[in-house]
Amino acid sequence: MSMAPLVYALTLSWNGQNDTLACFESLQKLDYPNKRLLLVDNGSTDGTPEAVANQFPTVELIRNETNLGFAAGMNVGLRHALSQKADYIIMVNNDTIIDPAALQKMIPLFGDDVGMVAPKIYYAAEPDRIWSVGGLKNPLTLEMAGDARGDIDREQWAEVLERDYFNGCALLLSSPFLEEVGLFDERFFMYYEDSDLSIRARQAGYRLLLSPHSHVWHKVATTSGGSDSPNERYWMARSSIIFFRKHVHGWRWLIVVPYRTASAFRTISRLLWRRRFASVKAYIRGLRDGLGNSFPTR
User: Fold this and answer.
1) d(Cα 23, Cα 282) in Å, to the nearest integer?
2) Alpha-carbon distance values, 282 to 45, 100, 288 (Å)
3) What percent of the chain has pLDDT over 90?
4) Distance between CA 223 and CA 231 in Å, rounded?
5) Whole-prediction pTM value?
6) SS3 of 54-73
7) Rg of the chain over CA atoms, in angstroms?
8) Residues 6+ apart with CB under 8 A from 65
9) Once rounded to an integer, what is the mean pLDDT over residues 10-26?
10) Fewer beta carbons within 10 Å, N or C terminal of the chain?
11) In the beta sheet, which residues pair with residue 12?
12) d(C-alpha 177, C-alpha 115), whole Å
């Protein structure tokens, strides 16, 4: 009887001890016979790695001395899993809870042309409300469409679907895919690294499949300080500029520039209306830093 493929379950922490412990509690319950659990800690100062090592002694632990951000931090874990001959790697945010049956339902969807499989992701605070089912790419603006965010799940997403974008919050990746396409682009400290990887996957001919009966619950933006916090607005703005500079070419700039400019003004207006003045300053600084970031686009 052959052994089941080796799956590494990987999460990244930067403080958030209680969330991380709850995440590993759920990962430990994954109903899968050949899994290893891995924590990459991004320089936590609240005792997170010590608490995980104490409560879950079989978890493999890598400590980064400083906060490398999401892309670079996850890459540390991905490289380790690949070096250990993992067949698949499931990445989950440390503020998520995963259904014990998720892996058993996701792995059979892989074939030679499938690089990523994602579960349906729900809001932890509202367990039936969808946070992400991935999305389709608007060919003109490169924006994601059809991610169903905020919808109540009434089994309208019950079929396996092919998608253009997935969110890095919860994602199962095959090792051959990573070895061909590469890891996360570390120019993205936080946000858009998953969209970038999705685009690169599609360009390389890989399919991205939604596994509709695999479920994860997400506490949403806890690492960055919460939705519309200055930290979240800064990194979202900076990474968005880097993303579009990398992937928009030629005549599409005629559409993307006015579209993104209007989007920026809407965001600033919304933050001003809510009197989130520090977030406005952080958002504008992020746009400026993204525009000032020099890198080759190919």
Assistant:
1) 30
2) 24, 39, 10
3) 91
4) 9
5) 0.93
6) HHCCCCEEEEECCCCHHHHH
7) 19
8) 43
9) 97
10) N
11) 40
12) 5
